[in-house]
Amino acid sequence: MAGKYLSMSIQSLGGAQVRGEDLTMTTQSPSDVHTQHVEGVRSDSGLALITRVSEARVRPERFEAFRDFVVSAVRAFPDRHPGLVAHEVLLAPPGTLLYVSRWRSEADLAEYAGERWREQPVVLAGEGEYLVAPLQVRHFTLAPLR
Length: 146
Fold this sequence. Notes:
Layout: E1 7-9, E2 24-27, E3 50-57, H1 63-74, H2 77-80, E4 84-92, E5 96-103, H3 106-113, E6 136-141
């Protein structure tokens, strides 16, 4: 059903009820509670937030398995990558999954993704079997709304 979505934390995935086709899952590290609402971070707050969007074009018959694979893989990222402010998995079945991550700085992002972070996606081991095309990665910064 177009236009419907559900937002949930990754930690509560086990008991979730999907009410529509699109599903959004978010999680944050307990150490990042003060940045829970990233959209509330102003450009004058001293944070140089960078949003990284990795787009996966998924084999439709493997979509649910890939979703579970990605959610399982990224669940612990906030504890392993201190510069990760927030992240979420966005779904557009049957063939598109986005992993969106928000980083405090270029240095934090480079620590996670390597020195070629601007053009090279991070590929999880075994990910290729689910995909119909290579991952695409894009980066965005916040524009003040005042």
